[in-house]
Amino acid sequence: MYSRKLPYLLLLPSALFLCVFFLYPFVLVAWQAFVTDTGELTSEYFMEMATHWKFNTALINTLLLALAVVPFQIVLALYMATLVNGMKRGRDLILYIWTIPLGISDLAAGIIWLAIFEQTGFLNSFMQSLGFIEEPIGFLGYQNKGTIFVAIMLAEIWRATAIVLVILVAGMGLIPKEYYEAAEVFGASRWKQFTRITLPMLKPSLQTAMILRVILAFEVFAVVVALGGTNLPVLMGEIYTWQYDLRDSSVAAAYALVVLAISIGFTLLIMWGLRTPKGARV
Amino acid sequence: MAEINIKQVAKQFGGTHALHSIDLTIADQEFLVLLGASGCGKTTLLRIVAGLETATSGEVWIGGHRVDKLAPRDRGIAMVFQNYAVFPHLTVYENIAFGLRMAKLPQAEVDKRVNRTADLMHIENLLSRYSGQLSGGQRQRVAVARALATEPAVLLMDEPLSNLDALLRMEMRAELKTVLAESKTTTIYVTHDQVEAMSMADRIAIVNEGRIVQAASAVEVYRNPAEHFVGSFIGNPPMNFLDATALGDGWWDVAGTRIKGPSVKQNKLQFGIRPEDISVHSPKTSNPQDSPSATIRVLEPLGSHLLASCKVDNQMLRVVLDSDASVKAGDPLHWSPVADRIRWFDPATALAIL
Ligand SMILES: Nc1ncnc2c1ncn2[C@@H]1O[C@H](COP(=O)(O)OP(=O)(O)O)[C@@H](O)[C@H]1O
Ligand SMILES: [Mg+2]
């Protein structure tokens, strides 16, 4: 019974699943954020969220982290993907090694980097044994917001660059060799081949990788908790705090909607920025 | 000055020999056509000259410089690829402009050259399109325009007109020939179409199984094939070959007739004659001694002439007849070769005997 309806029929279960477990909770969250217990529409929870002293810090920290981490990851992954694609042998092995961090949960990643940076950590004992320092340095102390930020950045880059790498390697593999040959014959240097052929033809993969990474970056949580505790508030952490410590799920819901709005905003921005002109094929 | 010297270039892919020791010199501003059947190594040779493939052994010189070690972009060439390689993310305009942009030409000059070459290839109305919106033939013309726009010293073209329909191809053939004659470009042009080769080439290099078997003008390869292969490959229909047995003193028995030939020590030769170099006699006037008889098997009226496929002495003989000749299948045909058009080949080596 192959018919035009069949594909829709086959999609129905997953659509239902999404409705029940995504759309419904989403409506609930939105309801919680906008509607009081007595059933009146209100912006009171958003006001409470926005006027709280940690809101701006959390928002700025989250945005700064994403801005510091994602572009760096994209550039790094592009470079690594170029190297991998240029390899004749051992390509798969290197790829496996580079993607090991993908198998580690973000909390575990945070703890690994904590073991490096904490007062009794590897970095301190290493520098001490070499005689660079007398006393261990409290890299992650509350007065060292800068080093906490850098440590989180490093952990995030170490943990989540591989997913970008995998997407870009696959995308680069799809670009036919003949275009590089043509570019080469018509005088394009290696760098020009990268900017005039690789980058434009990689747009769909770049788009996917960036959207994925940006959304995950706005949801950064466990790594921040592991390395900074509450010293570096981020949006996700605030949601957790409001929900479980302050027991105010309405404000937590308002936060959740902010994260959602930012994610959608950036997704649209990336899709627009990396759009393919009408008619062009890449 | 861009003379191209190919010296003992050989290429192996794994165990297969794609090219066996190619020696070829293309003079400055010459238009050389590499002609051969599919898979004979034409593309491989062109790619070696371009630097996209490394020869297993041998040297390539362009304009007096050895270029084997140079990257393609440093060889001063432009190329039309067999599979076009028109960039799908750029418009036709930007595709044609690609080489000019890489050379950092001013926009005015880019504009001028793109428009001129686009006009030439009849794609001036497609400039804002993307390659995904073009037909195969249009894409091919973009590829040619992109190469012409850079006004290279050396132009390498790999079957650049193969995907055009017959009429357009004929027109493009003539235009390309004119343009390239005016520019001072040295051209290597690959094709498997002998009409294209004959009509465009200053010189044709015929490639067979990775060897160049003859490199000469169109008339020369047609009239004086250096090998049996050339005779059977060039010409439509190809040259006729009949077995010849020595009678002594330079006389040979060809299908029961005595024909004067070379005085060589072999007992057997092959006698070659083009279908249009055969004269036909009415039975009465002919002397059976010097006019062998063949039996017509199939007649093909081709408009300009009538092609008769005959059997003579159990071998195939094709004869071009006048289009209003009154013959029919089964008729005997008395024929004789035009004496100075006969060619002889050694069956052992397949080479022509001079
Ligand atoms: N990259 C390659 N790897 C292996 N064999 C190849 C490769 N390129 C070409 N060949 C072989 O070399 C021979 C010549 O190919 P090619 O130069 O493309 O022929 P043509 O252009 O005359 O049709 C063919 O037998 C082909 O299969
Ligand atoms: Mg070819």
Strand content of chain A: under 5%
Report the end-to-end length of chain A measured between terminal Cα atoms.
36 Å
Biggest β-sheet strands, sense, barrel of chain A: none
Count of DSSP-assigned helices of chain A: 13
Q: What is the residue-mean pLDDT of chain B, rounded to a whole number? A: 92
Question: Order of strands side by side in the largest beta sheet of chain B?
Answer: 6-7-8-3-9-10
Reported for the largest beta sheet of chain B, the result is: 6 strands, mixed
Topology, element by element:
The complex is a heterodimer of chains A (282) and B (354).
Chain A: H1 6-34, H2 44-51, H3 53-86, H4 91-98, H5 106-117, H6 122-129, H7 145-173, H8 177-185, H9 190-201, H10 203-218, H11 222-228, H12 235-245, H13 249-273
Helix pairs in contact in A: 1-13, 2-13, 3-7, 3-10, 5-7, 5-11, 7-10, 7-11, 8-9, 10-13, 12-13
Chain B: E1 4-13, E2 16-26, E3 31-36, H1 42-50, E4 57-62, E5 65-66, E6 77-80, H2 92-102, H3 107-120, H4 136-149, E7 154-158, H5 166-182, E8 186-191, H6 194-200, E9 203-208, E10 211-216, H7 218-223, H8 228-233, E11 240-248, E12 251-254, E13 257-260, E14 268-273, E15 278-281, E16 293-301, E17 306-312, E18 315-321, E19 332-337, E20 343-345, E21 352-353
Parallel strand pairs in B: 3-8, 3-9, 6-7, 7-8
Antiparallel strand pairs in B: 1-2, 1-4, 4-5, 9-10, 11-12, 11-14, 12-13, 14-20, 15-19, 16-17, 16-19, 17-18, 20-21
The complex binds adenosine-5'-diphosphate and magnesium ion.
What are the key terms here?
heterodimer, A: 282 residues, mainly alpha, 13 helices, flat, B: 354 residues, alpha+beta, Rossmann fold, OB fold (Dihydrolipoamide Acetyltransferase, E2P), 2 domains, six-stranded mixed beta sheet, 8 helices, 21 strands, 35% strand, binds adenosine-5'-diphosphate, binds magnesium ion
